[in-house]
Request: fold
Amino acid sequence: MQLTGAQALIRSLEMEGVEVMFGLPGGAILPVYDPLIESSIRHILVRHEQGAGHMAEGYAHATGRPGVAMVTSGPAATNIVTPLCDAYMDSVPIVVITGQVPYAVIGSDAFQECDTLGITMPVTKHNWLVTDAADIPRIVREAFHVATTGRPGPVLIDVPKDISNATMDWYWPEHVDLPGYKPNLKGHPKMIKEAARLVAAARRPVIYAGGGILKARAAEALREFAETTGIPVVTTLMARGAFPDRHPQALGMPGMHGNYTAVTAMQRADLLITLGARFDDRVTGKVSAFAPEAKVIHADVDPAELGKVRRPDVPIVGDCRNVIEGLTKAVRSEYARGERPDLGPWWEQIRRWQAEHPVRYEQHEEGPLKPQFCIEMLRDHTPEDTIVVSGVGQHQMWASQLWRFDHPYTWVNSGGLATMGFAVPAAIGAKVGKPERMVWAIDGDGCFQMTAQELVTATAERIPVKVAILNNAYLGMVRQWQELFYEERYSEVYLSPDLPDYVRWAEAMGCVGFRVEHAEDVVPTIEKANEIDDRPVVIDFRVDYREKVYPMVPAGASNDDIILGPETDRPGGR
Amino acid sequence: MNVNGVQHHILSVLVENRFGVLSRVAGLFSRRGYNIYSLAVSPTEDERYSRMTIVVDGESAPIEQVTKQLNKLIPVIKINELPAADAVERELMLVTVRADGAFRSQVTELASIFEAKILDVGYEAMTLMVAGAPDKLDAMTELLAPFGIVELQRTGRIALPKLSREPSKLKLVRTKGA
Ligand SMILES: Cc1ncc(C[n+]2csc(CCOP(=O)(O)OP(=O)(O)O)c2C)c(N)n1
Ligand SMILES: [Mg+2]
Reply:
């Protein structure tokens, strides 16, 4: 059967099981948009290509399936670089297809030509320039394989226009043959055994669970391991939901804005059981002062993570789920041999920390509306399996701290790159992937202004997401740093609460808009928003701009120098 | 291997012979802040693959990280780290040196000591070619310097593992599928 390159591309996507893609057409990708008309694939027309990329990410986060975006060459390709980098940092499987000028004129500065391959090389797991229409099925197959296996990540296929128009004999490759790509998933039994020995000997162990748990669909395995061992679990920003917050062994989030107990338990630990986490500087603080007494077990599917920041005592290359299941078994046999330390004193210590240093804030009845209060009310008045998507800033940290994540894949956010503008499009992508679930974006006023236009997409495509803007009239997180570390010298962080008028803006985009200024209106408005299911909703919460995120470990400081709150704006800790 | 007191490592990297691969490798080094001391690329006995011999400055990068990151590149098939003691290395140098009148015979003499070839002779200069281990090239450069070096180019090293002195099964480095 003869197909054009464009037809072969759409056909290949169908073969990969793609049900939906996000994109926006233009000159170089025109041939591929034509066969899309006949395709079973749903296309969602975005208003900006960055939106397409983040939607693909949100879809992937929520479903575990690769998100697909398609855009044209030149400016469209550069517009999608941010989501690619975001997905690269957070190991999100997305497949981006870009149009390119005809192969014959590449390199001549043709209209809307840019070196997409070169620009995206550092922010993709791999990328391909198609040079022959006959390669399309093979490359699509390889691209989906690379994006979704091993450590997942973004990939890009650049398709010149003449290649889309050329003809080829259709085929579908039986298998992928990439001699230089063989992720090691198994986990070395000897290493697992050695790790089990450490686990069975530790008196102050902590499970340091990272986003890799979610990527490996290992939440169940983690729970079983934790319950077998009775060891406390911290879940990083990327792993919120990987272990239920309501579980008695859950300590919550560690790191720069982690809670005191999670941070300090890691600091005092004698063993860190690191599973799919990568010792990010936002978790470790000053590396040389991080968990000084701890031995380290480090399991990751990416061998380059082992020893990159902290040298592990037991490195294990492998898929988190395989490794954790193996570890649970191996620990059981250690226990069977009578090796089982008493974690009682460690838990007593942990419970004391929890009682002494809970995450706190106060909502006074008459006082200004607190952002934390809004988040807690949202948490308590939405279904338990609501998917929460956040932007980047103070609101993100409060959401991560205060929400109770009891299910995996209910938290979608931008961790490694910290991309403002992520929330609205990612929420749309998540809702497309999980239409039966309620999806709430918790966004900042600054973030919202970066990608809000995608709510037009949401209205047009009937994707009823809900957005809670915590409008503090500031680039709040930056303001917080200027307040604490630049002697309150505020430089370019004021936004204004009224400009834009978020309610009217929401309405102009076909959404329902609400404004909330007083604590007593918070719950009724959330309930009204929850009722609406035929269009997006935006709530403009006018919150106290003075509120800061605590606890906080200043950048570059030791985790021992955690600042607990405004009244102790000085190092606390030991 | 030590050059000017800096620890160097030799990586022999088998890669797919496709366009863009050099740029992926070079990009990885700059992106991760690793310094390439020298780089030589050539086709192998199997046309589907090329071999890159990369000399890495070990101060800029823990060699284990470099290797692991390189391994993540999909066109990278295989990496051999060749410890200097276990490798034979060669490098080629072309050097144009001032050699007028009185000095010509002295330069010629040096050339013969270093087994260099005279490629070109001009009115007041000569171009020599010398191949050898990098320190031999360094030594020759030092000795030529007083005459006045006009231009100098080195290829960067290529290296292969040393062979066993004892009977052993010789493994033919044919890669999969070949
Ligand atoms: C694209 C981008 N630009 C700049 C930053 C730096 N930055 C981090 S948080 C922040 C402020 C975010 O403001 P807002 O959305 O209002 O959230 P808030 O902190 O007030 O809750 C900024 C500017 C970033 N992370 N991303
Ligand atoms: Mg703000």
